[in-house]
């Protein structure tokens, strides 16, 4: 679930969070302002739902066969019109969300391949496979011998008939596709997929070190069967962060692009980067930061609407650990908020949900998106079994939670993987893909998000940020 190098040093003792000049790569970011968890929770109990007064669950659609197995984890979501496409380790599900309080399953495609993260463009759906298989079909079997031929990468489906998606083609990519990010070309003739992958090893035929790059797949819209890798830009010619404070950089975990501003933010294991993507096939790293004290694994990124801020997430524990505890504290497994000033990333603060979770709940910062609130920076975010948090980072140095929703632990005695993998705002509601519980739909009724319901999109891929305007 798992240019220049500059490390920003922030002094916690200074209330104003005064920034100092760039320092050597060995320097780290000590504690800064954050929302500090309160006393240990009394509840909720196993599977009990609790929330703030301003967040209400309006629907839940449990997982259905063939996606009810122990390893049938719900993953990422993409949206198009009245449809939500939800990834699953065993394939993907198409939901009709025209009535958010009553979503309906339109179709389910059985096509195993972790994580099966999804994106959509027109009549096309793209699926990431980051595990080794005997071939590129949906009936392939696992191929665990890394020095034997195997396949992993991107699959392309035609979803012009959402009730009957059709497999179009596949593209193998180095080290597979842990996640991918859809990037429209400037002419509107193709889409590019920035493929993030990592963890090379000498015993992996298709993932040999060094792997300091991403793969770029071009998909011609007039002939999607001709999709192919067109570039493999090296983002870390110096090898990236060697660790051990943060994870060793061997590629990227996730990239969020802001096409209207020709920007991308990459969360790349041990490094956070800002990229110029004006040349879609040749992205250039223009800024790079590290936080070897508090960030274990740079996981994902979100811009604010005017592109003046980036929220990076730290997936401490790989998504399977209990890190929302008093022992871990408020600065690790959290969000890091950075202002973009003259093209540089300047650290401002951390944000972590202000509720301690039990040792039986995997909980850490995970996937989220902006809520389109005019004039403010507001985000909804998944925290696995920490639930869904709605929070405001308009004041970068002082983020504050607006509301929350969560289920209690899956077990009262042992840590069991579960919770919200992805939580995104789409056309008036929050849609959450729960690892085990299916699709949840939430309504947020709070003056802090006034105006958000007036902003609608025809298509929404959360890692491809649209402009909603200010």
From TrEMBL:
Signal is among the record's keywords: yes
Keywords: Signal
Tagged with keyword Signal: yes
One Pfam family from the record: LVIVD
Signal peptide boundaries: 1-27
Designated name of the protein: LVIVD repeat-containing protein
Lineage of the organism: Bacteria, Bacillati, Actinomycetota, Actinomycetes, Pseudonocardiales
